[in-house]
Amino acid sequence: MTASTILHNATPEQITQAILNGVDEKLNQLRANFQPKEPTEYLTRNEVKELLKVDLSTIWNWTKKGKLKSYGIGNRVYYKRHEVEKTLIPLNQ
C-alpha cells in the first residue's frame, strides 16, 4: 500500500510552500547530523620521537613489536597522529 495525500482547496502557492517547508526540515536534520571529516595527519619518525620524548630506537622497537603502526612510501616511514595518541593508555584507572 502506498501513502497518499489528498489536497482540497489548496492553492499552488500553499502546495509549493508545504513542499519547501518539508525540504527545509529535511536539510536541517541532515546538517545537524553532518560532521566534517578531519584530514589524517601523518608524522615522521622524528616527529613521533619528539612528540613522545623518546629515542628513535624506541620508536623502532615499538613499531617492530606492533605497539605503533607504521605506513610508508618508498623509504619514508610515517605514523598517523591519531593512532600514536590512541596507543597512550591511562596509568591511574
Shape: rod-shaped
Strand content of the residues, in percent? 5-15%
Structural class: mainly alpha
Q: What is the radius of gyration computed over CA atoms, rounded to a whole number of angstroms?
A: 27 Å
What assembly state would you assign to the polypeptide chains in this entry? single chain
Task: Put the structure in a nutshell.
By secondary structure, the chain is mainly alpha-helical.
Structure characterization notes:
- It is a single chain.
- 51% of the residues lie in helices and 12% in strands.
- It is mainly α and 93 residues long.
- The protein has a domain at 42-87.
- It has a three-stranded antiparallel β-sheet with strand order 1-3-2.
- Strand 2 (71-73) and strand 3 (76-80) form a beta hairpin.
